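User: Fold this one for me? It's Diaminopimelate decarboxylase.
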Amino acid sequence: MHHFHYSNGQLYCEGVAVAAIAAKVGTPFYLYSHATLQHHFQVFDRAFGETPHLVCFAVKSNSNLAILRIFINQGGGVDIVSGGELFRALRAGVAPGKVVYSGVGKRPDEIRYALEQGILMFNIESPQELQVLNQAAGQMGRRARIALRVNPDVDPQTHPYISTGLKQNKFGIDIDRSVAEYLIAKQLPHLEIVGVACHIGSQLTQLSPFIETLGRLKELIARLRREDIQIRYLDIGGGLGIQYNEETPPHPVEYGRSIIQELQGLDCTLILEPGRVLVGNAGILVTKVLFTKQTEAKYFIIADAAMNDLARPSLYGSYHGIQPVVEKDRREVTASLVGPICESGDFLAKDRLMPAFDPGELVAVMSAGAYGFTMSSNYNSRPRVPEILVHKNEFYVIRQRETYEDLIRGEEIPICLTGG
Ligand SMILES: Cc1ncc(COP(=O)(O)O)c(C=O)c1O
Ligand SMILES: N[C@@H](CCCC[NH3+])C(=O)O
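Assistant: Here's what I get for Diaminopimelate decarboxylase.
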């Protein structure tokens, strides 16, 4: 559903003109539609109907407290990968019993924090982690609920940097070895085996890799049950793709239907960890053109947002739609939309046909709600941009623009350098 739309040649987010927000908050900024976020959650959640399930939003895709709160208010849980994400999610109001914790490198302090809070489940990614968690739980007088995150060796057919379920990836425990690890875990006194977890990659545009994975997970659960290891939760991760350009990913309803069908009679509570599909198309990045520049080789449109604000194009060569905030009659040019950062890899769109934007014009970088702000940095000492949420006919600053003072917070010049 699209709550970003044009009316009288102006881009709107729900009932608010994007240009009016820009006039108030300056550029660049991230802009999200509350209605879209809520709608995406509901559609995804309802796609699993009466099947016992929990939608654990992948915090890494967008960790703004207000956005987490929207999903939590709908009954959602969270998938976290760090102590920092746990802290955020708790601040946003999540019940610890709805938190699953993935990641290949959990630190001892992060493990203790999650144990203290009593999260739903640790998704264990190595034999050593199993031992460390058991020990930590023992020391704290707790019992940790666990799943093993298995690596099924399935090709998700996505960008190599974001595929996670192949043998050569660092993630999970080889599915063929996982039964042996489950048997070890069963002997560890401070662990309670409750689940099986898996996540094969991100931005998947086909159902077949999911289905192939489910087949392997079902087999594994059957084998575990023969070993008298009871599995209550099956966590199948996230990864459902969205349309950035010409992709045709399955609709969440189709995704849900095929999964339910595949898992009939399994008698597990399903856990899902969607990120991108909930937030990706619910947000845009709004930037302003500073200059245009014709060189001998190319035409550049230089904007005030850069790779530090949105890393995806530079990092993965990803496509994001580029649209005017205020439409006007004009030609199209083959251009690169670039930022002020001192790297030639700093582009938001490269050698593409786009409107011939003029200096001073606002540009919307589409589908920027997932892995946009969360992957942003202060490179080139650029303050991170604000995040704005539109709800009905109002807009709310849900994260303020960083200041120069914010940039140096925590830094100190030691006395040995000041001669004091
Ligand atoms: C363990 C885990 N769960 C969930 C996700 C969310 O993925 P996506 O945003 O593709 O739905 C990721 C990232 O790919 C992940 O690593
Ligand atoms: N950061 C990636 C997705 C990574 C998924 C993390 N498991 C992207 O923007 O597409």
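One thing worth pointing out: Residues 58, 61, 79, 102, 164, 199, 202-203, 237-240, 273-277, 370 surround pyridoxal-5'-phosphate (ligand 1) (CB under 6 Å).
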